[in-house]
Design brief:
Organism: Allopusillimonas soli
Family: Belongs to the transglycosylase MltG family.
Mean pLDDT: 89
Low-confidence stretches: 2-26
Number of strands: 8
Pfam families: YceG (PF02618)
GO cellular component, one term: plasma membrane
Enzyme class: lyase
Number of domains: 3
Largest sheet: 2 strands, antiparallel
Length: about 325
């Protein structure tokens, strides 16, 4: 009987020590840095992925974590139901606990993509395609189908996407970024239109967007922007053609050689403001906030002409004779 009691006590002691060592080993594993193939490794957690799925994704990316151990840690900590889908970055020195907590907190990596003021829609789409962090879903989708998904009644996507820097998690779709840019542009346009100067020769917010895109392409000089807008407003009021080169270039498309020639100015397209009066049918680029506000709050003056001085500023004239002298001086180099 005594031998049995001693055996039982010894067995219990061994089991207790084994449990203690197991707990110590488990704790050591959770706090030990995970082996990684690089200093920083990005990986993507898809919606619906459980701890075991995530561990497999991490291993495939080069983050060598024990699948069963990670799953057990997630369940025992109660974080298995808190893991958030998104893009994450593992850093050398991260422990299983660190990785788990980062995903439970939704501490995702972020990417940035900038749409520059004056970019065309074609250039915006190219920037989306060039970004390795943007998931491509729009290849083969027509402009009409895209506009329908956005809920837009516009005939063209040109000018509808607000130029700004957009922060997003890697794996975000091209459509999601365009949707954000579209709504940002529409919100700004609605606010600016509601606060516009009275009596402008613009029939709709879309007209303002079209003219703002022209101003955007005509000048980047802050001091001249509202004055340039005033020139176009004066021309619209008087029925004069806008006669602005950027619209001709846009209408030429791939036929533009890099230099406007006299025959280009005479080549009629819907956007040629030398051959057609009024506003072109669509914007020619994505205007920024400053150009839109300039169009809706233009300078009041008597200028109908302007020409680039060559230093980023413009020379303004009230009549054609003065304008021709300015062209002779600043473009042709004659005094």
């Amino acid at each position: 009987m005594k031998k049995f009691k001693k055996f039982s006590l010894l067995t219990l002691l061994i089991l207790s020590l084994a449990g203690l060592f197991a707990c110590a080993g488990a704790w050591y594993w959770t706090e030990r840095p995970v082996a990684m193939d690089g200093e920083r490794i990005d990986y993507l957690v898809e919606a619906g992925n459980g701890p075991a799925d995530i561990a497999r994704v991490m291993n495939e990316a080069g983050i060598h974590i024990h699948t069963r151990g990670f799953s057990l840690l997630a369940r025992l900590s109660g974080q298995d139901k808190q893991l958030k889908a998104g893009a994450y970055e593992a850093r050398r020195g991260d422990t299983p606990v660190t990785l788990l907590q980062r995903m439970a907190n939704g501490d995702m990596t972020q990417s940035r993509l900038t749409f520059v003021e004056g970019w065309t829609y074609k250039r915006i789409r190219q920037a989306l395609r060039d970004s390795p962090d943007v998931r491509q879903t729009l290849d083969g989708i027509s402009d009409a189908a895209l506009l329908k998904r956005l809920g837009s009644n516009a005939s063209s996507p040109e000018g509808l996407f607000y130029p700004d820097t957009y922060v997003f998690t890697p794996g975000t779709t091209d459509f999601d970024i365009l949707r954000r840019a579209y709504h940002a542009g529409q919100d700004l346009l609605a606010r600016a239109w509601s606060e516009r100067e009275p009596g402008l020769p613009l029939a709709s917010p879309y007209d303002a967007l079209v003219l703002a895109s022209i101003v955007e392409k005509e000048t980047g000089n802050k001091a001249d922007r509202t004055k340039v807008a005033g020139v176009f407003i004066n021309r619209l009021r008087s029925g004069m053609p806008l006669q602005t080169d950027p619209t001709v270039i846009y209408g030429l498309g791939s036929d533009y050689s890099g230099r406007l020639r006299k025959k280009d100015l005479a080549a009629d397209t819907p956007w040629n403001t030398y051959t057609r009066s009024g506003l072109p049918p669509t914007p020619i680029a994505s205007p920024g906030r400053a150009s839109l506000l300039a169009v809706l709050h233009p300078d009041s003056h008597g200028y109908y002409y302007f020409v680039a001085r060559g230093d980023g500023t413009s020379e303004f004239s009230t009549n054609l004779a003065a304008h021709n002298r300015a062209v002779s001086k600043f473009i042709l180099g004659r005094n």
